Amino acid sequence: xxxxxxxxxxxxxxxxxxxxxxxxxxxxxxxxxxxxxxxxxxxxxxxxxxxxxxxxxxxxxxxxxxxxxxxxxxxxxxxxxxxxxxxxxxxxxxxxxxxxxxxxxxxxxxxxxxxxxxxxxxxxxxxxxxxxxxxxxxxxxxxxxxxxxxxxxxxxxxxxxxxxxxxxxxxxxxxxxxxxxxxxxxxxxxxxxxxxxxxxxxxxxxxxxxxxxxxxxxxxxxxxxxxxxxxxxxxxxxxxxxxxxxxxxxxxxxxxxxxxxxxxxxxxxxxxxxxxxxxxxxxxxxxxxxxxxxxxxxxxxxxxxxxxxxxxxxxxxxxx
Length: 320
Ligand code: ADP
Ligand code: MG
What we know:
By secondary structure, this protein is of the alpha+beta class. The protein folds into two domains: about 5-135, CATH 3.30.1330.10; about 150-310, Alpha-Beta Complex (Phosphoribosyl-aminoimidazole Synthetase, Chain A, domain 2), CATH 3.90.650. About 35% of the residues lie in helices and about 25% in strands. It contains ten helices and 13 strands. The strands form three sheets. Strands 8-10-7-11-9-12-13 form a seven-stranded mixed sheet. A four-stranded mixed sheet has the order 3-6-4-5. The chain has a two-stranded antiparallel ribbon with strand order 1-2. Strand 4, helix 3 (about 95-110) and strand 5 form a beta-alpha-beta unit. Bound molecules: adenosine-5'-diphosphate and magnesium ion. Adenosine-5'-diphosphate binds near residues 7, 26, 88 and 119.
């Protein structure tokens, strides 16, 4: 099967047809419109077989995760997603695989109202690269660099689930409760980009980042960019019921601190904005937990448990 036939059969038909797309798939480039007063936010993430997903992962999950991790980056910038492009490297043209993969792409594109506007299809080791683009009103993008000492640190959802899910998928761990097992594996395979949180944080949060490599690792990006320090109370880390009932209390803290792939948002808010934040989160039914506070000691991360120093050496995932 030729490249154009793969594109034609699996990717050209998209149910989302956005008004801001003038030319989508089929020409040498896509042509799109950016609304007045909005800035364009662009992000790219690659998922490599054997690195970001197990070769046994079902293609539907691979497709949806590839979209979700990119939308998570847009969420962390406070942006609203609009378009995606897909660069796909395939070792072979496997019709069944492509059917499931493209269904995953279509379903997620529908769900998030984003349009697939182009891409590239090549022969090679299995790799999925998605570029996502979205809008944020001028001057309202959330960044890593504007955090201030005294800011309260929040995390959305629950932390560490995907790390346990990975051990389950790798058969390194077994959990008897099937509901907990499925919940944790789904947290690995089907992360939820916190888009509503991101847009609600505009003009409220001082900084924001999404948690892809693990809390201890990712928070350092904010500390470095903003020249702050942080105190995190490990007893306040938000943990799922499935996690609490499946691993020891110390293991749970370890997963929550250092396992990657959660795609929750970590953000900081000043004391003045804390009240407004809490009201907005409650009215939007969003769960976010205050886990600590920033300090003026540049780049120093302190972990505490019941106000005692908590020793922890395992850092997050590093590629190199
Ligand atoms: P070119 O040779 O000009 O780069 P291609 O043959 O690679 O064009 O692609 C033809 C059209 O299909 C382009 O509009 C491109 O953006 C789109 N396309 C290619 N691969 C994909 C893909 N995996 N998903 C979505 N669109 C794709
Ligand atoms: Mg091409």
